[in-house]
Amino acid sequence: MSLRNSARLRGAIGIALVAALAAVLTACGSGGAATSGGATLKWASSSFPKHWDPVVSGSGAQFRELALSYAALTRTDDQGRAVPDLAQSWDYNSAGDQVTFHLRPGLKFSDGEPVDAAAVQAAIERAKKQQNSALFGDLTSIKSVTANGLDVVVALTQVDHQIPQLLGERVLQVASPKAAQDPAKLDQNPVGAGPFVLTQLIPGTKAVFKKNPDYWDAANIHIDSVELTSAPDASTVVSGLQTGVYNFADITPSQADAAKKAGLDVFVQPGFNASNISLNINKAPFDNDKVVDAVRAAINRQEFVDKLTFGYGSATDQPFPEGYIAYDPQSKNRYPYDPAKSRQLLAEAGYKPGDIKLDLVIPSADPAAEIVQSQLAAVGITVNIKVDKNWSTPFFAKDLTFSLYGTTGRDSALQTLTAHFGPNGPLNLSTPYEPAGFEDAVAKVRQTPLDAPDYPAVLQAATRVGLQSKALVFTYSSPNLFAKTKSISNLPGNPAHIDWTGVTISGR
Questions:
Q1: Residue 207: which of 37, 71, 56, 41 has the closest Cα?
Q2: What is the CATH topology of the domain spanning 274-477?
Q3: What dotted CATH number matches 3-249?
Q4: What is the rounded distance in angstroms from the CA atom of residue 302 to the CA atom of residue 176?
Q5: Domain limits of the chain?
Q6: Cis preceding-peptide flag for 495 (omega within 30 of 0)
Q7: What does the pLDDT look like over 237-251, one tens digit per residue?
Q8: What is the pTM of this model?
Q9: What torsion do the CA atoms of 72, 78, 82, 86 make, to the nearest 10 degrees?
Q10: Integer distance in angstroms from the first to the last C-alpha of the chain?
Q11: In angstroms, rounded to a whole number, what is the distance separating the alpha carbons of residues 98 and 142?
Q12: 21, pLDDT greater than 80
């Protein structure tokens, strides 16, 4: 089957897995809170967005909440594949360095502006150029975008068959270009073409939406309104679900058992979450390979699982879950727990117990940090846990020596790899370092169509090279967990995404 027909028929087949009350900002529409009655989703969110401009919010966990307002060129199905959203199909040229997305006709944003190629072009260019964009690093393969009616022609800097996976709702939620003329206003008043339209926003506290009758798949959206609330103290979420304050909530593994005992449904969403220890090999003592290897050998991943995930997580030594298309079986347990070897390596590096003293800088109190502290103390490394609320500035400037990080993964497996291991990867604390051979392995993945028979092997080979990185030590993975009342039907099990398509709420 040709690339053109393959994309048109199947999309791109890819991977197989409270704050101070402020002034109320009212969006175009009814201008008030949702009225009583109807099917109302009452969602207590632990990641209530600080930013509603998708360019500023970036591809972090808040994309799930922003997806209430916004749609993207593609979305992700239950197998993790890119499938049509605003774009009904796409095709590559024969060289693989240009892809054309064909938009659905007759669509419009919630402010009445048309969803056309010019709007998508503006969204991509804004993501690449806006000063406070959190997405520019994800779009390095895009050289230019041309708008031709409903056809978005994306010219690439290189052959890259990952683009349909990339331009989904994590990276390219499309805002109305008219609304985006004032990015500051858009940041607190989302205007998209998604399944719902904002009617009220209390920044940091609550957002209210009504169903968007002009959404392209409105016939399969059975929720009339959404009340999104910033989750209160974790201890009150389950009782809030029991009393009807909420009917859907983000929960932690420690809350799951209580939710089940309360008669609630616990939705275990598959995902690509992975936690790691970040090392900066440009700074001592991690400029010594033996010290890096000593830290690798000192880490008992199972302890993180046992103490932090309450049976819902798993030990991981890769950024992907086992069984996922990008998971490399050959690299399983490459760095096993071996504290005796760790102590030996430190001695070979010229360090006696207590010689190495490290600040572990993290953004907030985290029990994972205490586990790291304890495990490294066992091999003679002293760790001082330092909480810095402004942690993100030195981390992304690559000024820290030692830190922790956790990701929710990406829809493009290659994007996950480059974010972790690439020379400019945001999660690579050792920039510009990268493992030997990584760039070549990445290029080969980009050059391989997603439906090619050898794609899994090529992708896993890139994972294998990336895992040679001395900058990260992976520890454990925990799925996304949600509790819901039984009035809400089952949700599609799309990896890392919350999809409200087909979901019903009974007991109106």
A1: 41
A2: Dipeptide-binding Protein; domain 3 (3.10.105)
A3: 3.40.190.10
A4: 47
A5: 3-249, 274-477
A6: no
A7: 999 999 999 999 999
A8: 0.82
A9: -30
A10: 48
A11: 9
A12: no
